[in-house]
């Protein structure tokens, strides 16, 4: 039987995880989302492990977010599906995205401009599959995405919804401006601002098939 070292005996730097806390937190989040009637799509970019991904998805291995195509391939190879690549579509990696979209039941890409949509139109998926596309909106976080109040956002949403071989799967916002918050109230204010902006944007397109996943 292998001996178990105490934390004090570990060589530093060392990364330690209280697995019980991880499991408890994940369970609470899953149950919270279920109670609200929404689907949880946890992000894998911090831990990048199968073990933690299993915990965060409740063992379903479905409905996750990744930041890189290496992560997408890793989780695909380990039996995960319904994967959102939450980074604006790199034009030189469309073929890699297409391969994943054709391998998986559901692989989602993120775009925030018409040029990216044009790249998807050039690369049709096999067997009549449609690209699952999320529109990235910028809710005051100073990163990528189109401002929801910008007329260009409406034009892009219409273009995606009307494009053959492409399905508008949802909109994606990131609260990156919360990183500089100094307390709970500021964090909650950013969350509320982002939620309001996102819902207002979606409501403008009620006649389109928005499916927030």
UniProtKB/TrEMBL annotation:
<protein>
    <recommendedName>
        <fullName>D-serine dehydratase</fullName>
        <ecNumber>4.3.1.18</ecNumber>
    </recommendedName>
</protein>
<dbReference type="GO" id="GO:0008721">
    <property type="term" value="F:D-serine ammonia-lyase activity"/>
</dbReference>
<keyword id="KW-0663">Pyridoxal phosphate</keyword>
<dbReference type="GO" id="GO:0046872">
    <property type="term" value="F:metal ion binding"/>
</dbReference>
<feature type="domain" description="Alanine racemase N-terminal">
    <location>
        <begin position="17"/>
        <end position="192"/>
    </location>
</feature>
<keyword id="KW-0479">Metal-binding</keyword>
<keyword id="KW-0862">Zinc</keyword>
<dbReference type="GO" id="GO:0036088">
    <property type="term" value="P:D-serine catabolic process"/>
</dbReference>
<comment type="similarity">
    <text>Belongs to the DSD1 family.</text>
</comment>
<dbReference type="InterPro" id="IPR001608">
    <property type="entry name" value="Ala_racemase_N"/>
</dbReference>
<dbReference type="InterPro" id="IPR029066">
    <property type="entry name" value="PLP-binding_barrel"/>
</dbReference>
<dbReference type="InterPro" id="IPR051466">
    <property type="entry name" value="D-amino_acid_metab_enzyme"/>
</dbReference>
<dbReference type="Pfam" id="PF01168">
    <property type="entry name" value="Ala_racemase_N"/>
</dbReference>
<keyword id="KW-0456">Lyase</keyword>
